[in-house]
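Consider the record:
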Amino acid sequence: MKIAILGGSRLIGTALVPLLAEKIKDIELHIINRGVTPAVWDYEKKWPGRVFRHIADRSSPLNFCDALEKIALKKIDAVIDMSCYTKEELTPAIRAFSKKISQYIFISTCSVYGVLKYLPASEEHPLDTGESNSMYGREKIKCEKELLYSAKNKDFNVTILRPTYIYGPWDYTERLFYFIDRIYKQVPIFFPSGGQDPMFNAIYVKDLARQIAGLLLNEGAYNQIYNAASNDSLYFSEFLKLIGNSLSQEVKLVHVSYDEYKKAAGGLSFPYTRYHTAFDAGKMKALFGEENFPFTPYQQAVDETVSWHIDRADVPSPNNYADEKKYFAGNFAPKSRLL
């Protein structure tokens, strides 16, 4: 089995590459990226003769296409694309692999839905192509449409995954770390929710890797779209409580308006949306079977992520959050909630 991975140096790749290399003994992995972001492991050294790295930059479409065409000559069975954000970045890959592979797995995003109109959102939820949605979400929609057209044109079979928020070790976005460090130091969490406690779904990176592995060359997944989400959704405050449990700390949560948050945070963006993010994973569960659906209980996954940060000495960080503490003491101390 020969698989090409576009991307692979960051969060998803750190879980997926070892999983595939260790689970499938006859696999040959070709990892294609710019070579700018250092890989967590030296894949070629760890799995010699089975994992190969190639340098190719999507910002140079002609050179990128040439590089992929050379790799396609190796009789690649499937492509896993984790680094495509625009239709223009996608076109060279479609051209290079058309009629040469069995499956193209595309990592899209649940952001294609925009603000959810119903909960939990299934794959049939309307896509938001309007200006109210993020540029990221709108561009992924364009990519999905292009790939579905390729499937209709029989260039290759397509499987589209729409992950919700991803967390776990090697998370370069530091979304979860935002909360871990503050809760560790007993710094109040300003939540720009306007008093609401939205439903929340996040997927542990190891579970996402197992989902991708289960879809790989799985004919039942050909020309299908799946939410890549956890088995359960929970309230956002409950998710923060899990971090507090891991740290044996109480969580000070302060619901504020968006304008108040900007004052309290000094212009720092909140790591997650303030809207509901509850997604239905039933379609993928039906494919895998309930017992085989990859899901690490939230508390276990959060515990492992927190331990990873502590082992790396990320926590505590040098930041003492003096401005946030001062703003809390002067404005919100009586209104805070301990979780």
